[in-house]
UniProtKB/TrEMBL annotation:
This is Pentatricopeptide repeat-containing protein, chloroplastic. PPR repeats lie at residues 125-159. Keywords: Repeat, Transit peptide. Gene3D superfamilies: Tetratricopeptide repeat domain (1.25.40.10). It comes from Ananas comosus (Pineapple). Signal peptide: none annotated. InterPro entries: EMB1417-like, PPR_rpt, TPR-like_helical_dom_sf. The keyword Transport does not apply.
């Protein structure tokens, strides 16, 4: 198994059962060219040796790819998982959306986001909403930010403070300063922490709009 892995450009865990052993380390696509057919072919040959689909190993591989900022590889491996009919976790969707963001593939991110919303609806996490808003903020799309925010409000999901600031900026860019103020007043804490004389001190915010 290990010899096969190195031949294909993977680093495989020494465990004889990657799919079922929680202590197994991960495999890594490392030396293959950026060609869909080559990537998919190698992954297909790898899984052909497994009695069960290596979900755990695939998830761990995506974690490693994320830490290494290998965004294109994340997209390739995740699309391969989808082509095999694998159901992605919300965490994997988060990684994929981040990869699309970093690669500037907004249309594909939106397609995946629509799948997430339609499939999970009431269970979509605050983290995923924040991921989409962060992407739209990164690519200067304030109207899109407000569309996601509208979905959040409809589903009763409150944005974290960083996301609230991005929403506020989107309103400001569209000339809706009154709504910016309402969002910041609603979702930002009335307190913040600063360092003073080497200590962390809680102080009251005086003006949300200058955050």
């Amino acid at each position: 198994m290990a010899e096969l892995g190195f031949h294909l450009g993977f680093r495989l865990a020494p465990s004889p059962s990657i799919a079922t052993c929680s202590s197994a380390t991960t495999f890594m696509v490392s030396k293959l060219p950026n060609d869909k057919e080559v990537i998919y072919g190698a992954l297909d040959r790898w899984t052909a040796w497994e009695t069960e689909f290596p979900v755990i190993a695939a998830a761990k591989a995506l974690e490693i790819l994320r830490r290494r900022n290998q965004w294109l590889r994340i997209i390739q491996v995740t699309k391969w998982l989808l082509s095999k009919g694998q159901v992605l976790t919300l965490g994997t969707y988060d990684t994929l959306l981040l990869a699309f963001n970093m690669e500037g593939r907004i249309d594909e991110a939106e397609s995946i986001w629509n799948i997430v919303i339609q499939t999970h609806t009431r269970s979509v996490s605050k983290r995923l909403f924040s991921r989409m808003i962060s992407m739209y903020d990164h690519h200067h799309l304030p109207e899109k930010i407000l569309e996601v925010f509208a979905d959040m409000e409809e589903l009763g999901v409150n944005p974290d403070e960083d996301t609230a600031r991005r929403i506020g900026r989107a309103f400001a860019k569209l000339g809706q300063v009154d709504k910016q103020k309402l969002v910041l007043e609603k979702y930002l804490s009335k307190w913040k922490y600063i360092h003073f004389n080497g200590e962390r001190v809680r102080v009251q915010r005086t003006h949300h709009l200058v955050e």
